Amino acid sequence: MSQAVIHRGVVYLAGQVAGDAPGAPVAQQTLNVLRRIDTLLAAAGTDKSKLLSARVWLTDLRRFDEMNNVWVEWVSPGNTPTRVVVEAKLAAPQFVVEIGVIAACSGP
Amino acid sequence: MTGVERIGVGPHLSHAAVHEGIIHLSGVVSPGRSVLEQTRNVLAGIDELLHSSGSDKSRILSATVWLTDMRHFDQMNGAWEEWLPPGHAPARVCIEAKLSLLDFCVAIAVTAAELTTKRERCQTSNA
Hints:
Chain A contains two helices and five strands. Chain A is α+β, with helices and mostly antiparallel strands. Chain A has a single domain (4-104), classed as CATH 3.30.1330.40. In chain A, strands 1-2-5-3-4 form a five-stranded mixed sheet, covered by helices on one side. Chain A is globular. The two termini of chain A are 19 Å apart. Chain B has one domain (5-115): CATH 3.30.1330.40. Chain B has a six-stranded mixed sheet with strand order 1-2-3-6-4-5, covered by helices on one side. In chain B, a hairpin with a 2-residue loop joins strand 2 and strand 3 (22-25). In chain B, helix 1 packs parallel to helix 2 (73-83). Classes of the chains: A alpha+beta, B alpha+beta.
């Protein structure tokens, strides 16, 4: 799969997991996921202030606040995306949070 | 890059984001004594958000429905079918998942097309 696909001014990112922090607590994994999203958005010529939607999957919703505290520090104030958070099993046991986003961007 | 219009902007999320004629809504939940009633209230909430965003339920492209218990599918689906205008059903996914808002049994998120593009609205207002 591709990590990002751009079409008509919209970039679709693959669900990101904390590849640099496997097995770490939720807060640390969330931070790593959001940094990866920053990097991919930059590669697409855009940034988090242009986010349209976010889907957050947590393996354990009891960790919601830990994820959410990192999230609220990260989002662009006044430019928060639409969001859904649900609990789901992820592809590998070392990951406890995955986030997929769609953002406006320039380009084809 | 064209702009993004947002509705119901909060510290964690916005209720709607509109870009290039496409409306994205956050997952909507609503209280109710049954899944049927919750779903009806969720759909009324989606009606309001789509209206505020310049669209309506006849223009929904895709919908994701999360139920905390799939045994409630028929209740959700009953409300869904009585709500949808005939001939305008969107693409839909329905799965079971725990919701971050623990008091609720159903959440629905949709994307929709604007009723008219901003350019068309400008042309109309200039006519």
